[in-house]
Amino acid sequence: MQNPRPANGLANLEKRLAEDLSLLELPPKDWVPATEYDGRRVYDAVVIGAGMCGLVAAASLKMLGIFNVICLDRAPEGLEGPWITYARMETLRSPKQLTGPALGLPALTFRAWYVAQFGAEAWEALGKIPKDQWMEYLVWYRKVLALPVRNLVTVTDMAPVGENLIALDATDKASGREEWIYARHVILATGRDGLGCGYVPEFAKDVDRRFWAHSADDIDFAALKGKRVAVIGAGASAMDNAATALEAGADGVDMIIRRKEMPRVNKFTGISSQGVVQGFAGLSDDWKWKFMDYVLGAQTPPPRDSTLRVSRHPGGRFFLDTAARGLRQSGDQVVVETNRGALEYDFVIFATGFRVDLDRRPELKNFAPFIRFWQDIFTPAEGMENGELATSPYLGPDFEFLEKVPGTCPALRLVHCFNYPASLSHGKLSGDIPAVSDGGRRLARGIARSLFVADREHHFASLMAYETPELLGDEWTDSAATLDELRKGAAE
């Protein structure tokens, strides 16, 4: 017999969350003065992206009393982020008990949301979080915190307006209308490919696109029914795409894996702690590089469940110690050249990760020449060269971009990189679930500090103008006469 679901569970949880926020006096009062430019509203922050990181950024600002914020996302409502688009896993890999974007509020956790609807016993029985439910939770998170999001809006350009303002050129897909939006700070919550695109080896780019795709592309898996497919890569995305192709009826899927052995240990998880979360940003550059170079070298293994999802199909094969070296068309098929010979397929999926490539980000074209990267300032020790790390942005303490040459683009400090490429500067605070709240709070505190400093004259004027008395003048009597008598007595 199934246990009944809690009556009014979600409504009761929302009431509890409201009470908790009230007890904590959250969100606090709005303290940032309104500003205009050319007769138009200026936002204190515009967040590009309303996936998990974008929502956490907006919520963190709100919890510091910064309300004049808008999130812009190009996707329809409910489809923000990768969770039910190109994230083709069945469940999250993160343990279900991680609090993720909850910002230290128990009633805002996924666990509270889940138990409110399905009960404590269902929570105990739950293994890992189904990705669709995680998306439902994020939709609720946005609603219950009343976060301001505009969907179907794409930012196509940004430009500095003087030293203290950013103009964003945005297109509303629903109306087709183009508009300029002004912001004092811009937050790029744009995910794994936030500063570039999916990486595909150069040898694939001259082959007709009907024969291949990147794992983050919108792939028509139904069209792969009865086809022979190769997936190049061995990470989580590789396994998820391979399994999805097999489940769609692909005749067979070969995993083309360069390594002699699959990575088995998730190194960074092994040292997970608040020490890492709070301390990584305090490391010297050479130690940051040393940590991240080791982690990238060891690689993150695909989840066990994702790997079994491929291997349980008779048509799922693993070719280890097989490096893809070329791709060419052969009639109606495509040939993958490897160190172990040529292999013929109908379609190839490159699960080869993402790379920073600012030429692929039109919204950053006016800032790209001025952005400082690690390769501009840091030379790794011999044997520790790493192209992925070298092209990571070298960020300031508040996730802000820094100038390659000081003084060449002062407004660059107003653009914050709150996406995966920030990892080398800040650790994994802006791309993965475990520490995203810590990242959001670090970002929001920095922006709050910047706004206060920028508005210091306004706040000082408010300080001087404040005249509400705490004492009304009737709390005491003038004792001057008594003092005169005391002096007279002392003289006698």
Explain the overall architecture.
By secondary structure, this protein is of the alpha/beta class. Helix content is 31%, strand content 18%. The protein is built from 16 helices and 20 strands. The chain has helices at residues 9-23, 52-62, 110-118, 120-125, 131-144, 236-247, 267-270, 274-279, 285-298, 304-311, 374-377, 387-390, 423-426, 436-454, 456-465, 480-491; strands at residues 35-37, 40-43, 45-48, 69-73, 149-151, 153-160, 166-172, 178-183, 186-188, 196-198, 212-214, 228-232, 252-256, 316-319, 324-330, 333-338, 341-345, 347-350, 354-356, 415-417. The strands form five sheets. A five-stranded mixed beta sheet has the order 1-2-8-7-6, with no helix packed on it. Helix 1 packs antiparallel against helix 3 (110-118) and helix 2 (52-62) packs across helix 14 (436-454). The radius of gyration is 27 Å and the shape is elongated. The mean pLDDT is 95.
Features of the shown structure:
alpha/beta, 492 residues, five-stranded mixed β-sheet, 18% strand, single chain, five-stranded parallel β-sheet, 20 strands
Instruction: Please estimate the helix content.
Output: 25-40%
Number of strands: 20
Oligomeric status of the shown chains? Answer: single chain
**What is the makeup of the main sheet?**
5 strands, mixed
Strand-pairing-aware structural class? alpha/beta
Uncertain regions spanning at least 5 consecutive residues = none
Major sheet: order of its strands?
Answer: 1-2-8-7-6
What portion of residues belong to β-strands?
15-25%
Shape: elongated
First-residue to last-residue Cα separation: 99 Å
Which value, in Å, is the CA radius of gyration? 27 Å
Mean pLDDT figure: 95
Number of helices: 16
